[in-house]
Amino acid sequence: MKIKTIAIVMIFSVLFINCKDQNKDTAIVELITVEEMDSLLEMEKVQLVDVRTPQEYADGHIEGAINIDFTDENFETLLSEVDKTKPVAVYCGRGGRSGKCSAYMKKAGFTKIYDLDGGITEWKYKGKPVTK
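Given the sequence above, the corresponding structure tokens read:
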């Protein structure tokens, strides 16, 4: 009888741990086009994060973006100030840093992450405005 009870407890423990781990992966990272980003910004449905360096940000950024440098040693602390429960759109120069940032954000518990395909380079190419 004790062996049966122990077996049942172990099975439920494994199931509980697996369910808990699966919930960690419920975040969605979606690669979006310039047009989709533009629509999200018009609807004011996202927090916008530019993960380039401060110098790149100063040279021109999408209006409303906050700058959190992906290469900054305090990146994780700075990013923790962004609301994880609200959708976040990230971009960089061409998509490399924002892709890495999106993967980090997913692990950190952000629920909805949009990554601008082609970064601000594609944004400018499509004739969208930047702010200095």
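Confidence is low (pLDDT under 50) at residues 5-23. Try to locate this feature in the token string yourself.
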